TrEMBL record:
InterPro entries: AB_hydrolase_fold, Dockerin_1_rpt, Dockerin_dom, Dockerin_dom_sf, EF_Hand_1_Ca_BS, Esterase-like, Mycobacterial_A85_antigen. PANTHER family: ENTEROCHELIN ESTERASE-RELATED. GO terms for molecular function: hydrolase activity, hydrolyzing O-glycosyl compounds. Residues 26-93 form the Dockerin domain. Keywords: Signal. The keyword Acetylation does not apply. Residues 1-27 form the signal peptide. The keyword Signal applies. This is Enterochelin esterase. CDD domains: Dockerin_I. GO terms for biological process: polysaccharide catabolic process. It comes from Ruminococcus flavefaciens.
Length: 395
């Protein structure tokens, strides 16, 4: 029998009366994230961490899915806080959908809009894989997976020191020059987020270089949040502008730092940018507004906010209108690719809005939609596997 008891608990340094439900130790119960048999303020803290982890691209705990809708969102944190404070007595009931299954494999949706003859993008679209090949994420004996260096640089736009990680390619030789890919993390993330083992980026690069499917390249993982103000990442327009400023930080500080310290090839044909969630949004924003700098542009589950819109987290002021989401007379990238999952409870239909705008504006691009992906590593791996195989080969 479940025993309901009142206990004194502290959350965010404030004393509160928490209503806790003692559950059997052997049961996995929604809300009891630390599995101590009690749903209390400690679980609220863990739920908050799960939301931050989800937006930055890490693995999350399904027990944080309080409303049972299959994804972990702000509403889950709100419900858990209300339960602990005693304003609600139970969580929403979950429902199980009954579906029929078939033996056919899921089909990836790939679209190239307004293909220009035998364009490079059209060639890539014909070779898109639903997901990465399983062998591409397995460590193999005798394969060089490169090395990671953590560096600090001075950001002119933030007026402070910032960190970045640099993945040097297999067989790195300082006497040779390499193309550069910039990979952006999700909101609340850091320069370490996209190097999480679940993403497999370092492993995939090593295996694809070893098999001859990818060029040797340097991959840079910057810490995106760029501001002089004493603020922290949040669902606000002020915070979004600090993420948008990665565009200037790249041009004014990161690219000069890379040129000064590493043997890099320059020019748009040797420069790529992609990212996940908020990082996917920023990669698309950077690529579309700076086409003279980036020849290969991607985004995985890109977050809302390039266009003015309203979602469950905030009202986004936007950076441009959908009609401006194009290249005009500027050169289009060799590759422009959006990867997403059909059902994304985190960014909603934001990826579709970018795809629709590009289509309406007649911009050639690849729309890589997974039927069975997620807002996380599954979608990232599918994107990076395809992106890595085709960057820096158009010229």
């Amino acid at each position: 029998m479940n025993i309901i008891k009142k206990t004194a608990a502290s959350f965010a340094a404030a004393a509160a009366i928490a209503v806790s439900s003692v559950m059997p130790a052997s049961a996995a119960v929604r809300g009891d994230l630390n599995n101590d048999g009690t749903i209390d303020s400690f679980d609220v803290v863990l739920c908050r961490r799960n939301i931050i982890t989800m937006f930055s691209g890490g693995q999350t705990d399904l027990l944080a899915d309080i409303d049972g809708n299959g994804s972990i969102q702000i509403n889950d944190l709100v419900l858990l806080q209300k339960y602990v404070l005693g304003t609600i007595k139970e969580f929403p009931q979950t429902t199980t959908a009954v579906t029929t299954t078939t033996t056919s494999a899921p089909v990836v949706t790939t679209t190239v809009t307004t293909p220009s003859g035998d364009s490079y993008m059209k060639k890539m679209a014909a070779d898109i894989h639903i997901h990465e090949e399983s062998s591409s994420t397995e460590k193999k004996s005798g394969v060089d997976y490169g090395t990671i260096e953590k560096k600090t640089y001075f950001s002119k736009d933030a007026q402070r020191e910032k960190n970045l990680n640099i993945l040097l390619p297999p067989g790195y030789d300082s006497s040779q020059k390499y193309p550069v890919m910039y990979v952006f993390h999700g909101i609340f993330g850091s320069e370490d987020s996209m190097l999480d083992d679940s993403m497999k980026i370092q492993t995939m690069l090593g295996n694809l270089v070893a098999s001859g499917e990818a060029e040797k390249m340097i991959i840079v993982f910057p810490q995106m949040f760029t501001t002089k103000e004493n603020i922290f990442p949040a669902f606000t327009n002020e915070s979004s502008r600090a993420y948008d400023a990665i565009r200037e930080d790249l041009e004014n500080s990161i690219m000069p730092f890379m040129k000064e310290n590493y043997p890099i090839k320059e020019g748009r044909e040797n420069t790529a940018v992609t990212g996940f969630s908020m990082g996917g949004r920023e990669a698309l924003y950077v690529g579309v507004t700076r086409p003279q700098l980036y020849g290969y542009v991607g985004g995985v589950c890109p977050a809302p906010g390039i266009f003015p819109t309203v979602d469950g987290n905030m009202t986004h002021e936007g950076c441009m209108s959908p009609s401006e989401f194009c290249f005009g007379s500027a050169p289009s990238p060799y590759v422009l690719m959006i990867t997403c999952t059909r059902f994304d409870g985190t960014v909603g239909d934001a990826p579709d809005s970018y795809h629709d705008a590009l289509t309406q504006n007649g911009v050639e691009h690849i729309w890589h939609q997974l039927t069975d992906g997620d807002h996380g590593a599954i979608s990232v791996r599918a994107h990076m596997y395809n992106f890595l195989r085709y960057v820096f080969k158009a010229k």
